[in-house]
Structures are given as C-alpha cells and as structure tokens.
Amino acid sequence: MKKISTILTIVIFCAAFTLLPTRPLQAKKIVPAEKNSFAQVTRNLDPGGDFYLYMSSEKSIKFMQNFLEVIKDIAVIEAKKPSEKQEIEVGLNLVDKLLKDSGLFEISGIGMSSIKMKNGFNHEKTVIHHYKGMGKGLMWHLSEANPHAFDSQKLLPANTAFAGFSDSKLDYLWQWIRKVAAESGIPKLQQGIGMVTPMLKNKGIDLDVLLGSLGGQSGIILTLDDTKMCKIPVKGLNLEFPEPALAIVIYVKDDSIFNLLQKVIPVPPQVDGNMKKIVGPVIPLPIPVNPMVVQKDNLLIFASNGKIMDEILAGKKGLSGSAEFKNLSVNMPGKGNSYTFLSSKIFKTITAIQAKAIAMSKNKEEKAIYAAFERLNLMPKDLAFYSVKQNTAEGFIYTSNNNLPLGGSAILPALAVGGIVAAIAIPNTLTALQKGKQKATMGDMKTISLALEAYIADKGHAPKGESLVDIRSQLEPQYIKRLPLKDAWGFKFHYTGGKAGSEKAYCIGSGGKDGVFKGWEQGGFYKVKDIKHFGKDIILCSGRFTLGPKVK
Which of 333, 170, 305 minimizes the C-alpha distance to 243? Predict the structure, then answer.
C-alpha cells in the first residue's frame, strides 16, 4: 500500500508540473558582426506569406571586384607584347568602369516576399537596395528621382490587353554613353561615338534637339476587341482571335519629332486645332492596319489604326474602371516610375488557339507530348498581372499582383526559364522522337538488304515481288529470322526486285512519317531541319541508300 501511495504521489506531481504554464523557447538573438541592409530591405517586404527572402550583396560585389582585378593582372602577365598588354589593360579597365558607373556595385541587398490575398492574387514585392546617399550609377537615374502619378493610365482603352509605361530619360543615357566613350582610352570607340551626332546632322537630324524634346515617358498599348474576330489560315487551320490593335505613346515637350517625320513621310499632315495627323496607306492584311501618327498637346502617338487612336485620345479612363483592373490594383501603389499590365485576355486567347490546333492535329504523339507539358501548369491559362516599379532614395521597389503559381514574381525567373525550356523542349522532343524513328527505319532497311544480299549470293538473283510480304517466305528463316514488314512509323515497307534484265537489283522504300511513298524514280539526299522533313521518302537500292537524309 505504501508503494502504491508513493507511485500516485509521483504521478500527481508530474501531471501538475506538466500543466504549469511554460515560456516558449526563443532563439538567442545574435548581433551581426558585419554591417548589412537587412533592416532597410525587410521593412518594405510583407512577412507571413509563402515566400520570403533577404540576401546581402556586399560580399558578392567585393568578390566580383577582386575577381576582375585578378583577371586583369593575369591577362596582363600572359600578354607577350607591350601593345597587347596595353590593349588588355584598357579593355578590362573599361569593363570595370562600366560596371561601377552602371550602379550594379552599389547594390547592398535584395529582398523578395509573396503573400496570398483574399481575392486570389499573389501580392509580391522585390526590393533592390542601395544605402542612402549612394545611387550614383546609371541604373538609378534612368527614371525620375521620385514616384509620380500614372497620368498615362487615363489613355488606356477598356479593352486593353497589355500596357507598359515607363520613365525613359534617353538624353541622360546618351550623355552617359558619350562620357564613358570619352574616358575609355579606346580611340576607335571614341571616334565611333563621336561621329554619331555630326553624321546625323549631315542628314538634317539634330540628335541633341530630338532627345531634348522628349518628355521622359513612353509606353505601348495593345488592345483586343472581342466584338470583332480575325481569321488567319495556318497549316490548314483557321485560327480565330479577337481583333488586335497596337499603339506606341511618347510624351514630348514640342513637335520636333513630328516635324522630322513630316519630312520623311511623303504625306501632307492633317491639322485640326492643336492636333496634327499623318495617315499612311491601308495595308491589306487579315488584321485592319491603317498606320498613322498623331501629335496632340504633349502626346506623340503611333497607332496601327484609327480606332485605337480615337480610344486613346478620348481619355475616358476605360481600363481603370474595369473589374479586372480594379481586382488587380488591390493594395498596389498609386504612384511609381513604371508599370506593366497584362490582361487575362491574352493567355485565354493563346490557350484557345493552342487547344484548337492540338484538337485538329492528326499526330497522336504530338497530342500526348503537349498534354504532358500542359500538366506541368507552368503558366495559368488566364495569367494576369499588374506590376509597379518605384524609384526611392534607397533603391527600387517592385510591387506586383498576379495569379502565377508557386508564388509569382519571386519565382518568375524560374518560371520564365521553365517556359523557355518547355518551348524549346517540346519541338526538340518531337524532333528527337522522329529522328529516332528515322534511324530505326534506316537500320531495318539495312538489315533487310543484308538478307537480300545473302539470298542473291546463293541464288544468283533477287527475290521477285512487289512487296516484302511476297518474298517473306523466301527469306525466313534461312536468311533472316524475322523480316521487318513495317517501318518505325507503322507503315508497310515498299519493295521491288528481281525484274528481267536486272535480276540482282532490288529496292526497299519507306514513305516516312506521313506514309505516302512517291515512287522509285526519286533520288538524292536532303537536310532534316524541321519535323516536316521526316515525311520525306527513304530508298535503299542494291545495298546503298539512293534517297534519304544527309548523314554527317
């Protein structure tokens, strides 16, 4: 009994101890021994999402600078002539200067975050940071110093499928190029850049005046009109898609560029108050194209037709009032230095065209391979995004809303690479499959030829017949265990042989991927550059190929 009471006492004590409130374990805070930009970068990121990253770039940049110095020293040591040493030194000094002046070496850290919003879109940020007082390089000065209102969004029609506008200080870029060339120490570069301005002046173009006339912003607008469909025949298919229109918009300070175009284009301009217009000829295409240039106030617009031009000039804020844009704009900054908008219309259109093409394809392998790649779901069929770049006193902040899988812009480079790989891999996979079948077919034809040569050596003539089925019993099993009757594409081999006057002669033929054999009178060799070339015939006569792909 005493033992039982002792055990109960211990159990009660342990239970009471476990029920006592405990303090959660906390990691010991480590103070970094080296300065970094963690605090400055992460204060602009969103914690709590499915992706979060910070990376200091200071050590990497120091390593890169040291690496370039070592490479320069090695190259100079290896050079045999003084003139070579000088060229190498000057060239590598230019590379070093370009990197330093570009602003890349001023980057102190990079951060990324991605968080899912209730409306289904990912809200993402990418920060490229430099310390306050830095930001002297070119990349930081191609945009205005501070974010500004997006006045250009008033120009976007309601059916805008893609739009991208950005600060563009081309005059600053040109001055930087001239400065780098002048300080490069490379006479040919100095001479080449130095000749640009006078060469253009001889043609009546004052480059400095033109660059000075730019207003510092430009963009592109693509619209898709769902109410009008275009049809283009491609490989027997009528591809149908919404009618597109394109416009390039440049903000200007005066009419210098329009006046220059007026000299080049032999069409008198139409003037209507403060608007000047040059209209080109209608181009006969399935898509309506009637190019025109309009300057109105501070806008210079190049448009593919009058409809998109009228919609832009109307300035009705069409896109900003659409449900899709409002949804994509949730939690997005209202000011910035550039923005990009992609409507789901584009990917829906592409997906519809692709689905129709695959459905009408007669090639089962192509369908299977496209279906396999489709299962990867690298890009959603209704991909849409809206991104804004802001230039701040401490670098760039990129903010994006999108419906990309796996966390959007944070893994966008990987998705882009994946998309490129898929685009390359699909045709390459198809080509590789067909090339394998072509080689297998030619291999079987050689095997049949060896059996026929052995038969001729014994009998003194080739088997008579118009198909391999006709001569099969004469070759099996003495000369070949099993005679291949079909090529690797599943079509019957063609055969002719043992005819009077050429008893020892024979030919074996394959119609290729399409199975259509065009006769024995063909000859020569062709290059296989595309999947369509696998449809060409292959012929082997009396031990050698007389028609087929060129073999390296």
Answer: 305
pLDDT one-digit tens code per residue, 344-378: 998 888 888 777 777 776 667 667 767 776 776 66
363-397 as b/e: b if 16+ CB within 10 A:
eeebeebbeeeeeeebbeeebbbbbbbbbbebbbb
End-to-end CA distance of the chain: 96
Determine contact, residues 449/507, Cβ cutoff 8 Å. no
Q: What are phi and psi of 297, to 5 degrees?
A: 55, -120
Question: How many Å apart are CA 503 and CA 506, to the nearest integer?
Answer: 8
pLDDT by residue (tens digit) across 234-287?
666 677 888 999 999 999 999 999 999 888 887 888 888 889 999 988 888 878
Bridge-based pairing of strands 237-252 and 270-272 is unpaired
pLDDT, position 419: 47
Distance CA 546, CA 529 (A): 20
Residue % of the chain over a pLDDT of 70: 86
Give the model's pLDDT for residue 58: 84
Distances (CA, A) of 266 to 254, 259, 261, 280, 491: 21, 12, 9, 9, 60
Taking alpha carbons only, the member of 218, 211, 215 closest to residue 196 is: 211
Tokens 């067909």 locate to 434
Asked whether residue 546 carries a pLDDT value surpassing 90, the answer given is yes
- What's the rounded Cα separation, in Å, for the pair 200 and 202? 5
Rounded-to-integer distance, Cα 386 and Cα 408, Å: 12
> Nearest 5°: phi and psi at 169?
-90, 75
> What DSSP string describes 43-76?
TTS-TTSSEEEEEE-HHHHHHHHHHHHHHHHHHH
Name the residue among 238, 251, 254, 249 with its Cα closest to residue 286.
238
Secondary element (H or E) of residue 496: strand 494-499
Domains of the chain: 2-36 (no CATH), 432-549 (3.30.700)
Arithmetic mean of pLDDT over the chain:
84
Check the CA dihedral 143-144-149-155 and report its sign: negative
- d(C-alpha 145, C-alpha 167), whole Å: 10
pTM of the model: 0.69
Distance CA 142, CA 105 (A): 17
Question: Given this model, what pLDDT does residue 281 score?
Answer: 87
C-alpha atoms less than 13 angstroms from C-alpha of 21 in its C-beta half-sphere: 1
